Protein 1
Amino acid sequence: MTRRSARTAKRRGPLPPGGLRRRLVIAFVLVAAVSAGILAVASYVLVRQARLQGSLTASAVQAREDLNLAATITYPVAASFSGWMPLADPTWSWLAGCRNRPVNSTCSSPSAISSTT
């Protein structure tokens, strides 16, 4: 048999009351808090992704329906305007002078054209 020193015997003595229990409670609370935090973050990310995907899908369906509806709309051609061109009409002949002018120039009447040319 081996002899134990006084120091070793003192170390292996009974645990102080509450020491191990306190550490176990703290460890358990920390594990529970970390687990709850990870679960909350993962749930938030999954729900956010699902909501975004749902809204994108709904928007795509709505846009497809709107485009299909727009493709079926037809407008009747008015008989009085078919073939009408402003430059062929003599009352609109002053527009011919505005064709090659800068955008910011004024071309609002026949008198404006005659004064600048």
Protein 2
Amino acid sequence: MRDMKSDPFHHPRLSPQQNKACEMVLNGFTREEIADELVITDGHLCVLLHHARRHGVPIPRLRSVRRHCPTEALKEIVADIGVARAAKQLNITPNAVRIRLRDAA
């Protein structure tokens, strides 16, 4: 887990867990990092952020890093650890990794 940036966030109508999740989103953390830090599932994180948005907090929608890995980052990962390990890390099949690399060429 990387260090938290110094931009604090607090909304009086949110729970401490919702405030922490919002703070991490606004500081650029990924869904996986936030869920790991708060020890919650990805689905529960989505619920927390949905409730924050209902209270008027302008939280951007997050994408999963595992399924939406940019092509250049995917190339670097594959070069470092290979197709099979990259697929396992990204939670996709090795064939999906090969297809993404082929389509990017």
Protein 3
Amino acid sequence: MRLPVSDADHPGFISLVTIIELYWVLTAWYDLTGTQVKEALEALLRAKQIVVDQADQVLRALLVFDASKADFADCLNRAHCLGRWVLRDHDF
């Protein structure tokens, strides 16, 4: 069986849950810094061969993450809930 190849005409798909898990694996298991993972996620967002679920929220979360001490998952949750919830986390 041959696996499908992702390209600009047939992009692969990465869900929000996968993005959060990817961040966790790269920081917890591979000891990458938050900055290194942020750069990797930004590269995924730019790739024409990949569609990231709710990419605008992932980008917004990366911007907040870069400017705060908050965990990336918290930043993504904030980006997802923006306008619907008031968060009182002082790390934001």
Protein 4
Amino acid sequence: MDGIEKIIDRISSDAQREIDDVLAAAQAEAEKITAKYQAQAKAEAVELAVAAGAVRETVEIIEAEDVPLAYYPGNTNRVKIKAAGDLCTA
């Protein structure tokens, strides 16, 4: 074809999955309906991320949500914590 220097074929789906696996971070989330256990939910999210394959030293809390639940008695909140870290390759 005139004027075309190089044709790049699309990457195969198997190769794309391998690339995605290398770039992916292991992550997990913990959700509790409680008024006072946000620290426990954070620790649980970290442990779940490690169990999912994250390197413990790289795990960070990437999202935290604390929503009051008007339909529960007292001062009750839904605490949702998401933790992620680098995927262990060893």
